[in-house]
Structures are given as structure tokens and as C-alpha cells.
Recover the amino acids of this structure.
């Protein structure tokens, strides 16, 4: 072998060794990187699993603390073992909540700042905490709710009620172990509102709740989704929640107004005609109709359902206002608007009427006529030629029935409180509300029916009010009316049925003399095709759905949340004198009518 061959052989040998070394080095590097990445991923996975387990443990703390706070158990034990060592702490100084209540009687009804405290767990820049009866999680720049605090905001029996049983932690700050004991601190449960300076129902003013917390933004979102509150971020760690106790409804500038967000679908309308008059100038028949009618909906106005339906014609002598329009091809000639056909997105907010109606009903109940008036045990049954006159405040512990030509008169400023229901079915009689001697009121706790050819009539030049804390029906050829110089209000909390050829109307078409308010879910008008239902007044039910079926005539104004139609033929004559009038005569209307706030303190410590 010559020298060149020996050199080449040596070079190949060196290359093989070098290749082996490089391969081993690359393998070590890849394995090392894989182990490092895998270790990081494992750590991330482990951290995520730990946090999820901690969320579950905090939810258990929430559940057990609630049992102790509300007196269902003197003590509870919870294991916070999440599978590895964890750093749990009790921080009695973590956050606070301030409750401020103002009313028309007392601008300082309640002003109380309550320390919340918290149980916290921190890992890798994330925190999970139990605070104020809820569980929260923060991730650096923001926070979110894991489970809600004990906070309830709802309508119940015609009222809007805010209930806040606040659970706080009152045993200082210290680390805690995997097993904790939750106990009552001993007599620290306390009612914040109602207070010596403020009571329910709330009359005017505001409820303001301010939360200072590391989880303030999550608290704010919670309030925003659960209430009709105005929520303001005061700072990174503080939110302010304002709940109006009252609002005032806007003026009645429309003949028909749909306040809810649902298509105003005319597919069930055969014919609709709308114009206007001014009752200050006389009855509708005594003047030439004007082009002042306004039909408005907060959502879409659709001429017919899918281009079909039964619609023959819609004539509006005035304006049509909607957020959008759906006029199918070939249907445009069915719609005739003499004024403007406007597209608007800014509508006045219309509050519910629950609180206002409930407040007035409770006002009658609070007078306790069973003890402070004339007490009538059992039912009142009038028939034939019988008559009865109620001249003093009277409580009837049963039902009232007026039939077959009999007459019941409420007069001289009396209030009649009926514990049962009211049935008026007289062929030539009924109920006379005589306001000549002062305002008269009737409260009926159960359903009210006016049928046959019966009448319920307000006379005398003053005001009469009928409250029905149940359903109301007017059917056949029965009528509910007010004299031209008398105001009648009907307020109820459940459904209303107007059927057949019923009449609910003010004399001489003075629409402002007859007001029907309802917080019921549904208002049904089912009219006779030849002899229509006639309504003359203001029907104000901004949280109710109404179905109009058959033939009807409206003089005045209709306000509902949603409208439905079934073969309807409708004549609408808007009374322009209503343009400056407000529901409830401009009085404030409760939004939060009842408030209940209490503090329940517990201690959480290692077992």
C-alpha cells in the first residue's frame, strides 16, 4: 500500500469518529431539549390541573361557609387537598363593599362599608379566591367569576327585589393548611337594610354598591348581567354599581308603541287604519280626523310574514317609526303613510310597571281595613233589585258577586278591600264608583270578571281606582267606563282578557280619563267580527305581550312590549291631548322597590 492510500484510509477513519461524535452530540442535544420542553409542558399541565382542583376546593368552601353563615350548621370542615403542597391564606383585610341607600324621606338612609375578607391561593401569577360568597379567579390584567355570590335581583309578586346576604371572613390574616374549619364568629350576623333610618318599599333615591377588590372587574360584570344597574369602573380595583329605586316614564307621544325587541309583524293584520284627534276639542266624531297618528316599534316593522299573510291594507295618517323595515317586493302598495317613515335607533327607555302597581296595592293593604275599617265576614252576594252602598272603609273577608240587575255603590271617599274575587254579571246593574264625596278605591285580591251586560262605572268628578292582584276579564257586552269629568284607573298584576263586544272607555273620548296599567305577562283582545271591542283611554303595559284578534277600535294610546295579531281589523284614533301626559301622572316609578342586605360573618382557620 502506497503512502496516498494510507493517508486516505486514515482520513476516512477520522471522519467516521467525528461523525459518531457529532451524532452523539446531536442526540444528546435533542434529548435534552425534548426533556426540557416536555418538563415545561408537564409543569404547565400540572399547574393548570392544580388550579382547576383549587377552584373545586374553593367552591366547597363557598358551599360550607354558606351553611354556617345562614345558621344551618354551627361548623363545617373542608379538605383543601389539591394533590400537592398548596399555599392557602386567609386575608381578613382583602376588599370591602359599601352600601349606600338614599330615599325621598332620608338622603342618608344607609351608608355602610363592610370588610369582605378572602381565602386565596396563588400560583404562577394567577389567584383563585373565595370572597363575598363567590369564587373568583384573576390572571394578571383581569379577573373572572368562577361561581356567583349570594345575590338575587328579581321580580316577585309585582315587585323588583334586591337581596344580598353577604358572607364575610372575620378572623384576621394567616396561612391555612389543607384542612380547614369554618365556624360562626358568634352573633355577628347583622341586618344592614332595612335599617332604623330606611325601610321598604323604597320611595325615591338610589341604591349604590361600591366594591373594592382585586376582582373588581369580575364583580362589575356580575352586577351588570344580573341587574339593570349602571356599572362604572372607578379604578382598576374598584367598581360602582348604581341601581335606581325610581324612574319616570316618558310621555305618550304614540298611538301604538311596541317597547320590546321583536319584529312588529303585520302578517296577522287584515286591515289597520290610524289617525288622530284632540279630545280637548271634543269627541272624535265631532271633529275632522288629523294626521297626528304615530306607530312605533323598537325593532323591525315587517309588512307581511315572508311576503304572504292576510294583510290587505295599512293606512297611517301620521308617522311610522322603526329601527328597520322589511317590505317584501310587490307589497309596498299595501302600506300608506302620510307622514314620515323614519328609521330610528334611539328610543326612550321604558321601565317596568311592577314596582309602581305593587307599591300602590301594598299601600291599601298596609291600612289594614280588617282591623281599622268595617269588617264583613263571608261573601257579599247581591242579585235582583238588591243594592248596597259602601260609605266607610270596608274589608270583605270573602268574594263579592253582583248579578241580575243588582247594584253595588262605593262612595264618600271609601276604600273597599275584597279578600276574594269580584264577579259583576248584572244585566241592568253593576258597580258604581261615586267620587263626588272623595276619591274611592277598590282592591280585589283574586280574579275579577265583568260579563253579560254589566257595567263598572266611575262618576262624580273625582278619581276612582280599581286594583286587581290577579286576572281581569271584561266580556260579552259588559263595560268599564268613566264619566267625562271623572278619572278611572285600573291596575292589575296578571293577565287581562277583553272579549266579544266589551267596552273599556272614557265618555266623550277623553282618553286621559281612563288608564289601564298591567304587569301581567299577557293581554288578549278577542273581538267579535261584527260588533268590535272598543277601547277609549290609555292601555299601558310595557312588559306585556298582547294579541289582538278580530275587530276592534282604539281611541287613545296602546303601549305593550310585544304585539301579535290574528285576523285583526283595527282602527286606531290617537288622542293628541296625551302627547304631554305621563303614566302614573308623572310620579316616580319604583325600579328596585324592596332591598334586603345582611352581613353574615364566619371564621376560616386551619383545623
Amino acid at each position: 500500500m502506497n503512502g496516498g492510500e494510507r493517508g486516505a484510509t486514515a482520513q476516512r477513519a477520522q471522519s467516521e469518529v467525528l461523525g459518531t461524535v457529532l451524532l452523539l452530540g446531536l442526540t444528546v442535544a435533542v434529548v435534552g431539549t425534548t426533556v426540557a420542553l416536555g418538563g415545561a409542558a408537564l409543569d404547565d399541565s400540572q399547574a393548570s390541573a392544580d388550579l382547576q382542583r383549587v377552584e373545586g376546593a374553593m367552591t366547597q368552601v363557598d358551599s360550607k361557609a354558606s351553611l354556617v353563615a345562614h345558621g344551618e350548621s354551627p361548623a363545617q370542615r373542608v379538605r383543601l387537598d389539591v394533590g400537592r403542597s398548596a399555599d392557602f391564606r386567609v386575608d381578613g383585610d382583602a376588599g370591602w363593599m359599601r352600601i349606600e341607600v338614599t330615599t325621598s324621606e332620608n338622603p342618608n338612609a344607609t351608608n355602610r362599608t363592610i370588610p369582605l375578607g378572602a381565602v386565596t391561593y396563588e400560583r404562577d401569577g394567577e389567584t383563585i379566591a373565595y370572597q363575598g360568597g363567590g369564587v373568583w379567579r384573576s390572571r394578571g390584567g383581569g379577573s373572572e367569576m368562577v361561581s356567583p355570590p349570594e345575590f338575587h335581583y328579581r321580580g316577585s309578586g309585582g315587585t323588583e327585589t334586591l337581596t344580598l346576604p353577604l358572607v364575610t371572613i372575620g378572623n384576621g390574616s394567616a396561612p391555612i393548611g389543607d384542612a380547614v374549619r369554618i365556624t360562626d364568629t358568634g352573633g355577628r350576623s347583622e341586618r344592614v337594610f332595612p335599617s332604623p333610618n330606611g325601610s321598604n318599599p323604597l320611595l325615591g333615591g338610589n341604591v349604590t354598591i361600591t366594591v373594592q377588590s382585586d376582582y373588581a372587574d369580575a364583580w362589575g360584570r356580575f352586577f351588570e348581567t344580573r341587574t339593570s344597574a349602571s356599572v362604572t369602573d372607578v379604578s382598576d380595583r374598584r367598581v360602582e354599581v348604581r341601581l335606581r329605586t325610581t324612574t319616570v316614564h316618558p310621555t305618550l307621544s304614540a298611538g301604538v308603541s311596541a317597547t320590546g325587541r321583536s319584529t312588529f309583524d303585520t302578517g296577522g293584520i287584515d286591515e289597520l287604519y290610524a289617525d288622530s284627534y284632540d279630545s280637548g276639542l271634543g269627541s272624535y266624531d265631532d271633529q275632522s280626523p288629523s294626521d297626528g297618528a304615530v306607530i312605533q316599534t323598537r325593532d323591525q316593522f315587517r309588512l307581511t310574514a315572508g311576503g304572504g299573510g292576510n294583510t290587505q291594507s295599512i293606512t297611517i295618517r301620521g308617522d311610522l317609526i322603526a329601527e328597520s323595515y322589511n317590505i317584501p317586493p310587490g307589497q309596498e302598495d299595501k302600506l300608506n303613510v302620510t307622514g314620515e317613515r323614519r328609521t330610528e335607533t334611539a328610543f326612550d327607555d321604558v321601565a317596568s310597571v311592577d314596582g309602581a302597581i305593587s307599591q300602590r296595592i301594598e299601600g291599601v293593604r298596609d291600612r289594614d281595613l280588617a282591623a281599622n275599617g268595617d269588617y264583613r265576614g263571608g261573601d257579599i252576594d247581591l242579585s235582583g233589585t238588591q243594592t248596597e252602598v259602601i260609605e266607610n272603609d270596608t274589608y270583605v273577608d270573602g268574594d263579592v258577586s253582583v248579578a241580575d240587575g243588582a247594584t253595588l255603590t262605593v262612595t264618600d271617599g271609601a276604600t273597599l278591600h275584597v279578600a276574594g274575587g269580584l264577579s259583576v254579571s248584572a244585566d241592568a246593574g253593576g258597580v258604581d264608583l261615586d267620587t263626588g264625596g272623595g276619591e274611592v278605591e277598590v282592591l280585589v285580591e283574586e280574579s275579577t270578571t265583568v260579563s253579560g251586560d254589566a257595567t263598572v262605572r266611575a262618576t262624580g268628578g273625582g278619581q276612582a281606582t280599581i286594583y286587581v292582584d290577579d286576572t281581569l276579564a271584561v266580556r260579552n257586552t259588559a263595560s268599564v267606563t268613566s264619566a267625562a269629568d271623572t278619572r278611572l284607573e285600573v291596575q292589575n298584576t296578571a293577565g287581562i282578557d277583553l272579549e266579544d263586544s266589551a267596552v273599556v272607555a272614557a265618555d266623550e273620548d277623553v282618553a286621559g280619563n281612563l288608564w289601564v296599567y298591567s304587569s301581567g305577562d299577557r293581554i288578549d283582545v278577542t273581538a267579535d267580527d261584527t260588533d268590535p271591542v272598543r277601547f277609549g283611554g290609555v292601555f299601558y303595559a310595557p312588559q306585556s305581550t298582547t294579541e289582538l284578534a278580530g275587530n276592534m277600535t282604539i281611541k287613545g294610546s296602546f303601549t305593550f312590549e310585544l304585539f301579535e295579531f290574528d285576523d285583526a281589523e283595527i282602527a286606531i284614533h290617537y288622542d293628541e291631548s296625551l302627547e304631554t301626559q305621563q303614566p302614573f301622572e308623572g310620579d316616580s316609578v319604583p325600579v328596585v322597590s324592596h332591598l334586603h342586605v345582611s352581613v353574615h360573618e364566619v371564621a376560616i382557620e386551619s383545623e
Q: What stands out?
A: The CA atoms of residues 139 and 213 lie 14 Å apart.
